Amino acid sequence: MSAGPAHAHGHDHGPAAYDRAFAIGIALNIAFVAVEAFYGWKAGSLALLADAGHNLSDVAGLVLAWGGALAGRLVPDARHTYGWKRAGILAAFVNAVLLLVAMGSLAWEAAHRLASPRPVEGATIMAVAGIGIIVNGATALLFMRGREHDLNIRGAFLHMAADALVSAGVVLAGGLALWLGWQWIDPVTSLAIAAVIVAGTIGLLRQSVHLLFDGVPADIDLAEVRALLEALPGVTGVHDLHVWAMGTAENALTAHLVMPEAPADDAFLREAAARLHQRFGIEHVTLQAMRVPFSRPCAQREASPSVATRSAARR
Q1: Global pTM?
Q2: 4, 83, 96, 221: which could join 204 in a potential S-S bond, CB 3.0 to 4.6 Å?
C-alpha cells in the first residue's frame, strides 16, 4: 500500500528576467567591437584586435544566454513536460566553449607575435581599452546580482567581467609600450590575460557539463538530503533518491520512502516537501511512500560524507 506522490512547486518558476540587461549589453558591445577593431587595425595592436575578437564572441555569448533564458520561460506542454529550462544550462556550456576557443586563438596569435614583435601606438591602445573597461564593467554589473543563483547568468557575467580584465591588461600593455618602448609587452599581456580567463572558465565548463548529465547541483549535498528524509517520522528507508537540475536556477527531487507502520498522508508529504524546499531550495519534489518496497532500487553507489564533501568542493 502506498501514498500518492507529493509535489512541491515554488511560486518563482525561473530566474528574474534580464531582458533589458541583455539588450543593453549586446548593443554596447556591438558598438565597442566596431570601434576597437578599427583602432586596433589602425594602431597595429594585437591586444586590441584580440580584445575586439573576444568581445565579438561575447556578443554571441550574450545572444546565446538571452536565448537560453527566453527558452527557459516557455510554458511546458504535452511533449516537453519540463519545458525548455535546460536551454540555460546548454547556453552556459556553449558560452564556456566560446571563451576557451577565443582564448586559444588569442594565445596562438600572441605566440607568433612574440616571435616577431611589431610597433604599436600606445596612446591609442590605452584610450580605446579604457573605454572597454567602462563598457565591459558596466555590462558585467548588469548581471552581477543573478550570478550566484543562475548558471546561465553567471556565464554572461563571467564573459563581461573577463572582457573588463582583458581591457585593463591592454591599457597596461599600451602604457608600458608608450613609456618604455617594450613592443613585446603587447603579446605577453595577451598570453597572461588568456591564461587568467581560461582558469576562470574551466569551472563554468565543468559545472555546465555536470548538470547536463543530471549531476547533483553543487549547492546540494545528497547525503544531507537523504538524512533529512530518513529523519522524517515513520520513515525507515529511502530508495531511488535522485536530485538534478531542471534548469540553471531550479532543481528537482524524486525518492521512495519506506514507511511500514502507516502510509504517508497529505500533511506528511506537504511537510516533507516544505522542509526540502526551505533547506535546499528544491522546487519540484516528488515522494512515493510505501509500506513494503515493491520496486528494485536503482544501482547507486553511496558516498561517505567525506567523499561527498570533497566532491562538492571539486564542483
Answers
A1: 0.68
A2: 96
The residues pairing with 3 across neighbouring beta strands, listed in sequence order, are 289
Amino acid symbol at 16: A
In this predicted structure, what is the pLDDT of residue 159? 73
Which tens digits make up the pLDDT trace of 203-248? 888 988 998 898 998 889 999 999 999 999 999 999 999 999 888 7
What is the grid cell recorded at 293?
A: 518496497
How far, in Å, CA of 303 to CA of 306, rounded?
A: 8
Q: Which residue has the cell 515493491?
A: 294
Using CA atoms, how far apart are residues 131 and 160, in angstroms rounded to an integer? 14
Is pLDDT larger for residue 208 or for residue 304? 208
CATH architecture of 19-212: Up-down Bundle (1.20)
Looking at per-residue pLDDT, the higher value among 106 and 232 belongs to 232
Please state the domain extents for the chain: 19-212, 216-314
Fold of 216-314: Alpha-Beta Plaits (3.30.70)
